Amino acid sequence: MSGAGTDVEAVAAANTALYDALERGDLDALSAQWLTEDVSVVHPGWPVITGRQDVMRSYALIMANTEYIQFFLTDVEVSVLGDTALVTCTENILSGGPAEEDGSAGPLVGGLVVATNIFRRAEDGAWKVWARHGSPVLIDRDDEDEDDEENGDGPAEGGPGGVTGFA
């Protein structure tokens, strides 16, 4: 197998490890996925956060306030150019808050985010996150299609689509 194919597979594995750490709520494992300096993140709806300490603090806050989270990644694309890699994907997210007083599971909420994860090859050869940007998808494709059909325009074309929640 060529070096490029190996790099693509290694970046895909690093991307998977990032989401696995998030799902487990494992801040140490998540921290290990990031470069040690000059990092940044944009969480959906948040301003840009720069610096490793502030980025890790942001994830600690998210983990402390999220009882359950699961990512179903779709449209994953990996590109590698030298020691830099770009991963784009759609995050189909299912998350939940604290358990109810009676002990039953808390409410589950679905969301759709498009993400760009930029990786750099570290000195030890491992692929580490350099920057991450997540943007919420605000268009509900089903509503858009219904509106167009009511106006006689037919199904909508172009633009972002998808479901903003889970049924």
UniProtKB/TrEMBL annotation:
Gene3D superfamilies referenced in this protein's UniProt entry, alphabetically: 3.10.450.50
Sequence segments annotated as region (Disordered): 138-167
PANTHER family linked to this entry: NUCLEAR TRANSPORT FACTOR 2 (NTF2) FAMILY PROTEIN (PTHR34957)
Protein name as annotated: DUF4440 domain-containing protein
Classification via InterPro entries: NTF2-like_dom_sf, SnoaL-like
Top-level division of the source organism's lineage: Bacteria
Domain SnoaL-like: residue ranges: 11-137
Composition-biased stretches (Gly residues): 155-167
Biased composition range(s): Acidic residues: 141-152
